Write the structure tokens for this entry.
Amino acid sequence: MPTALAEIELMPGFDSLPPFEENAPTFAENAAGKALYYSRLGDGLVFADDSGLVVPALGGAPGVRSARYAGANATDAERIAKLIGELRGSTGAERAAYFLCAIALAERGRAIAVVTARVDGEILESPRGTGGFGYDPVFYFPVLKKTFAELSREEKNQISHRGKAFRKLLTSMGTS
């Protein structure tokens, strides 16, 4: 069965555009806000995503603040250290977590689609692996018995929240 490819390009002059402030309470609202905002500033379809790590035992943190969880300029290592510290002494279901990705598609200030996808796992007590970024070294995916930082690029693209959400978006557009 043939597969259509989507060509993705950075919006021309993106670096010189006024930034969109991500301050909504949900990933979907942040993604939709960015897509709508930037679609008013350029031509064609615009898609934007927002994603992060959710740990129910921490009230959903880091959540939409995943990139700022340990402060605005914190490193991945500092965010991971804060997360591990917050979960110290937690066991079993208390360490359950999931990555969530929301992707929104818009054109000329009109929303066309918003899709979400998630992948479930658990938070380890210490990092493992050298690949990926963000929380990948402590996000353990039981199905493959690996952290996201231990997965090959191909494995991660198949199971990740972003990969799933992007495929869902393409399917909703009839291009899969």
